[in-house]
Design goal:
The protein is of the alpha/beta class. The protein contains nine helices and ten strands. It starts with 11 loop residues before the first strand and ends in a 17-residue tail after the last helix.
């Protein structure tokens, strides 16, 4: 199946994303993203992670100006909107409530249809923003701070999880290791940056030993923690003197582990159209190694632009577009919050 002009109708949607600590809004017209606005929350850096209560308060402050900016950038009025989409989950409860409540109130006031979107499904469909002719089925390695899955995407409305982490996510592993090394939050991008100048084979760490296509990162994090503790006991300057090599070795371990499972999934399914998505797909090391493996395996690859990798409303808008075409609308009374169980 391919998405082409025959599937696209004259639809304009407003999408709102508020699953974690970024308040975002986007306008999609005729399956094309025409605005994508994001307000970040820097306050969490001083706490070394996202504080849910502070995140929900910031969403309340940011959501009106963010939506207003998205409408202005798209040169679209609220009257021209055909429907309003919001992130139903998964995510932080308080943050999700702000976005869903705002979307429902706006839909009620304007008498517009409402579309509830699964945040993770939106990540998986984000590559269709710039690659609308992507053929189905395709495999997607979804890697973020809270989730790590290999998903078989049969269509925008049909997805099958082939493998998932049984404990921690890849993005969490990056951030936790960064914290062990004394790097500020968010630490994942800093590991990526420091890794550029290091030797990826300098230090060795064990990968999770789980069957099939599932992942495990908890043992890896523990191994890095004890390695650093033991090294610092012998030399207090060890991390400072070896930061680039540690980061490169940690990153190489995680990337190799992720891609080995993805390769296994591709061989099992015989699918050659392969994508990566989610916040960790912005990692330069992962992108580079993914493209190398793709060349060796003769894959056709799809990687969203950097602005569509981390949390954003454009991906919510794209997923909502297909739901709207399928007449898959939400109700004002729906108080549920979605998971990604399949």
């Amino acid at each position: 199946m391919q998405i082409n002009a025959k599937n696209v109708q004259n639809i304009t949607l407003l999408a709102i994303e508020s699953s974690c600590d970024d308040t975002a809004a986007s306008i999609i017209c005729n399956a094309k993203i025409v605005s994508n606005v994001i307000a970040n929350q820097d306050i969490h850096q001083q706490y070394g992670g996202v504080v849910p209560e502070l995140a929900s308060r910031a969403h309340q402050k940011n959501i009106v100006p963010v939506v207003d900016m998205a409408l202005k950038q798209a040169n679209v009025s609220l009257d021209a909107i055909d429907g309003i989409a919001y992130t139903q989950g998964p995510g932080l409860l308080g943050s999700l409530l702000v976005g869903s409540s705002f979307a429902k109130g706006l839909a009620l006031a304007l008498n517009k249809p409402l579309v509830a979107v699964n945040h993770l499904e939106a990540h998986v469909l984000s590559l269709l923003i710039d690659s609308p002719d992507t053929p189905f089925p395709y495999l997607c390695l979804l890697v973020s701070g809270g989730h790590t899955e290999i998903v078989k995407v049969n269509s925008p409305s049909s997805m099958e999880i082939l493998g998932r982490t049984i404990d921690d996510a890849a993005g969490e592993a990056f951030d936790k290791v960064a914290k062990i090394l004394g790097l500020p939050y968010p630490g994942g991008p800093l590991i990526d940056s420091n890794a550029k100048n290091g030797d990826p084979h300098c230090f060795s760490f064990p990968s999770g030993k789980v069957p099939n296509l599932d992942f495990s990162f908890s043992g890896f994090k523990t191994a890095v923690l004890y390695f650093i503790k033991d090294a610092v006991k012998k030399d207090a300057t060890f991390v400072e003197q070896n930061l680039s090599n540690i980061c490169a070795s940690v990153q190489q371990n995680i990337i190799t582990y992720l891609l080995s499972k993805l390769k296994q999934a591709a061989l099992q399914t015989k699918i050659k159209h392969i994508a990566i998505a989610g916040g960790v797909s912005a990692n330069l090391g992962l992108r580079t190694e993914f493209l190398k493996m793709a060349k060796d395996q003769s894959w056709t690859t799809y990687i969203p632009k950097l602005e569509y990798c981390t949390d954003n409303a454009a991906m919510i808008a794209m997923a909502a577009h297909f739901k709207f075409l399928d007449h898959n609308m939400a109700s004002l009374g729906d108080g549920s919050f979605a998971s990604f169980d399949r």
